[in-house]
Amino acid sequence: YERTQAINGLLTGQGYILVEIWECEFQAMINNTPELQAFIERDDVKVCVPMDPRDAFYGGRTGNIVSHYDVKDGEKINYYDVCSLYPFTCKTGKYPLGHPEILFDPEDIEKLCPNNDISRVEGLIKCTVLPPDSLYHPVLPMKAHQKLMFVLCRKCCQLQNNQECTHTDSEGQLTGAWVSCELHKAVEMGYRIKKIYEVWHYSKTTQYDPRTGKGGLFAGFINQFVKLKTEASGWPASCDTPEAKAAYIREIEEKSEIKLDPDKIKYNAGARAVAKLMLNSLWGKFAQRANMDKTAVLYTYEELYSFLFDAKKIITGCMFVENESGDADTVYLNWRWVNEDFEAALSSNVVIASYVTAQGRLVLYKYLEMLGERVFYYDTDSVIFVTRPGDVEPPSGNALGEMTDELAGYGVNTYITNFVSGGPKFYSYIAVTPDGQEIECCKIKGIRIDSQTSEKVNYNTMRKLVERQVEPFKVETTSIRRLKYHTVVTQAEEKIIRVTSAKRRRV
């Protein structure tokens, strides 16, 4: 109620005439008026809310396609990773400049997008699209079940249907906001745009030109820290001769326009971590929410009451602090605005962040499209896939944005023989090095694999779990937590290990 009143005050304060009605009264009107019920069920009414640019901001693409696989004669499983995916899109991607032209009038949209043709649009588009009937790797993301999903039918996704789809076009179509470049790819792959509701069109853009070294928003910043990260990563495993090292330096300079100092190429975990943090934090700052929780230190009842009875604020926490005599004369109050519009986001631009992640997903999609049904698992910037005799492998290299072999650290030509996955960020594999040594790797989000947890969480237990030979089980682990009294502790926790494969239909 307080949030509603605060929003009402914001609207009336800007001069709008506001007509209010209680929800129960409006629901009664719907139930008793068939015409009103039919009206609010129309698609154009459901999506009449103005587009929030954050609606077009999605994260990385993660998922598993197979639950387990053992290689056969002549096969090998590869694990490739895009070198610095988001820094690569920050440097080489296209980004909008200035303020957008916002179109929501149907006539204006039709002029820019005749017959729903979006080829001239550069920006954000809120629309309804109909996915193709069959596409092994869908293009467009949607948020459902607190996950980022890539689906061909909205209704099947909502119902988590694992059978053949029998839904109509209107039930299967997707409505949302996406960056234009991702929609362009979707149209190329067979998606059909049914209706456009709003367009944010940018007439000016910038993109880095490797021939001139100019353009782009982040090129200079990215080059500086990619140089530091690459040098701190040490020499690649294949650089075992002076000639190979010289060729590596030339390759980086030719492909990334970055000149490495051979005397500084030495593994340095600290410098590498700092460089990686800088590379990935810049674009993330553009996506930061403005309405973060804040803390006020209060000393009087008047100050406390002013917060408690302010309809524009939500209290999220309260802690009384005692002085030396035992009297609680100070209050730490946690609060935030009821609506993000109450605070300007001076240092953020979610449109830029949306462009970064959308172009990053398209880089990954290029490899998913290339590999097709050979893909076993993918996670934002990496892909695990099988190679059979005669198959083409993705081109690899060491430069920014190129595919690198994640297994090369164990030795060149190392490959996976056995793979198992129970869902996103939940996989294990056994790899074989050129000298015949077997290496087991296990990854589960939120669990650190050490000598204690590895007894319960390993390739064999994950395989049995996926094959339903064992029930979900608990694992004890430790984590560092900050308590409300400003203390940091290491505490024991229990996590349940279970299969979470819910992003694809299983056959």
Automatic annotation (TrEMBL):
One GO-annotated biological process of the protein: DNA replication
EC number of the protein: 2.7.7.7
Superkingdom assignment: Eukaryota
One annotated GO molecular function: DNA binding
InterPro entries, per the entry: DNA-dir_DNA_pol_B_mt/vir, DNA/RNA_pol_sf, DNA_pol_palm_dom_sf
Keywords of this entry: DNA replication, DNA-binding, DNA-directed DNA polymerase, Nucleotidyltransferase, Transferase
Transmembrane segments annotated in the record for this chain: none
Chemical reaction(s) catalysed: DNA(n) + a 2'-deoxyribonucleoside 5'-triphosphate = DNA(n+1) + diphosphate
Signal peptide interval: none
Domain DNA-directed DNA polymerase family B mitochondria/virus: residue ranges: 54-233, 257-303
Pfam families reported for this sequence: DNA_pol_B_2
Protein family membership: Belongs to the DNA polymerase type-B family.
Protein name: DNA-directed DNA polymerase
Species: Bracon brevicornis
